[in-house]
Amino acid sequence: MPDSETTVLRLTFGTETPAKTYTMEFNSPKPDLTEALIRQAMQVFIDGQVVAGKNGLLTTIEGAEIVTRQVTGLLA
Fold first, then answer.
1. How many domains does the chain divide into?
2. Residue 50 lies in a domain
3. pLDDT at 54 over 80
4. Model confidence at 2, in pLDDT bands (50, 70, 90)?
5. What average pLDDT score do residues 35-56 get?
6. pLDDT at residue 3 in the model
7. In a 3-state reduction of DSSP, which class is residue 20?
8. What is the rounded distance in angstroms from the CA atom of residue 40 to the CA atom of residue 68?
9. Model confidence, pTM
10. Which burial class, exposed, middle or buried, applies to 53 when counting CB atoms under 10 A from its CB (0-12, 13-18, 19+)?
11. Would you say 37 and 70 are in contact if contact means Cβ atoms under 8 Å apart?
């Protein structure tokens, strides 16, 4: 089994419910993303009120991270 690696951009927002967050993940983010660009994109989600989860609308930017996962197959 061949090795595989996946990378996602994980965005975490605060919601209308205190101490509750909402997380989105996007596959294959561009390698040249900047903090300013990510903040701008996250603010669009907040200002546009386009996402409402079980804890309400998105209200604040809580964090963003690039997550890389590597899987190494041991058995075919």
1. 1
2. yes
3. yes
4. low
5. 96
6. 87
7. coil
8. 23
9. 0.88
10. middle
11. no
Beta-strand (E) ranges in the chain? Answer: 4-15, 21-27, 52-53, 56-71
Of the candidates 9, 17, 19, 16, the one whose C-alpha atom is nearest the C-alpha of residue 63 is 9
Q: Is residue 76 part of a domain?
A: no
Taking only the tens place, the pLDDT of each residue in 3-42 is 899 999 999 999 999 999 999 999 999 999 999 999 999 9
Structure tokens at 4: 């595989």
The amino acid sitting at 65 is E
Cα dihedral angle (51, 53, 57, 61), rounded to 10 degrees?
Answer: -80
- Tokens representing residue 31 in the block: 């390698």
Please report how many Cα atoms fall inside a 13 Å half-sphere around the Cα of residue 63, on the Cβ side: 7
The two tokens of residue 44 are 């669009």
Q: Domain range spanning residue 17?
A: 4-71
